[in-house]
Amino acid sequence: MKQQLIIPLAAMFQSARLVAEIAHHGRFDKEAATPLLSSLFQFEAESTEAVYGGLDPLQPGFKELEQQLSHADREQIEVPHMVMAMMQLAKKLGKAETRLQQMHDELMRIEEKLEMYELTHVNTISAIAEIYKQKVSDLSPRIMVKGDPLHLENPDNQSRVRATLLAGIRSAILWDQLGGSRFHLLFRRKALLEMLRNVV
């Protein structure tokens, strides 16, 4: 396995944890979300690290990943389930060139407006969320987000969840491109944990 694999994997776990925080507590950590949302607009990054602006912005993801790989958080199956679904959706999107191109074109249009609105502005989040709604939500497996209805019924939180999931799927596509698979997450946990500790 390539050591670079640990980077998009950590980003997926960071995305999934963010979604869980929104769903259960209504909290949206803008600092943790920024590198994930920014990755959607890195069309020609020089390296895997550059997709996220370095490794530091992914520290929450590295921490979450280490907890999951070391079984320190066995009760928390929600986050790894989301990550596995992201990987499955990335595989499907990888075979849907037209859909991927349409998503790319939409992201290019959003990027043009980033000078007016920052990445975590409600307008930007809503536009990214719409891409998920139009291009991903009809694919299976559907990512079922559980949480407090008070938070999940809030339209802004719905957009934050969709935008963050799209960022997670973008990382899953990168994971797939680097040779990652669900097999690695299921059966190569020790190797991934060692790789993680070498990177972090």
Compose a concise summary of this entry:
The protein has about 200 residues and is an all-alpha fold. About 70% of the residues lie in helices and about 0% in strands. It has one domain (about 5-200): YcfC-like.
Describe the 3D structure.
The protein has a single domain (3-199), classed as YcfC-like (Orthogonal Bundle), CATH 1.10.3890.10. Helix content is 68%, strand content 0%. It has 11 helices and no strands. It has helices spanning 6-25, 30-39, 48-51, 59-69, 78-94, 97-111, 122-135, 149-152, 155-177, 182-187, 189-199. The protein is globular and about 40 Å long. The model has no long low-confidence stretch (mean pLDDT 94).
List the helices and strands and how they pair.
Layout: H1 6-25, H2 30-39, H3 48-51, H4 59-69, H5 78-94, H6 97-111, H7 122-135, H8 149-152, H9 155-177, H10 182-187, H11 189-199
Average pLDDT value?
Answer: 94
Determine the fraction of residues in helical runs and give it as a percent range: 55-70%
CATH architecture call: Orthogonal Bundle
What would you call the shape? globular
The computed structural class is mainly alpha
Sheet with the most strands? none
* Radius of gyration over all CA atoms, rounded: 16 Å
CATH homology superfamily name: HflD-like
DSSP summary, beta strand count: 0
Domain count: the total is: 1
Runs in which pLDDT lies below 50 for 5 or more consecutive residues are none
What is the terminal-to-terminal distance?
Answer: 17 Å
CATH class: Mainly Alpha
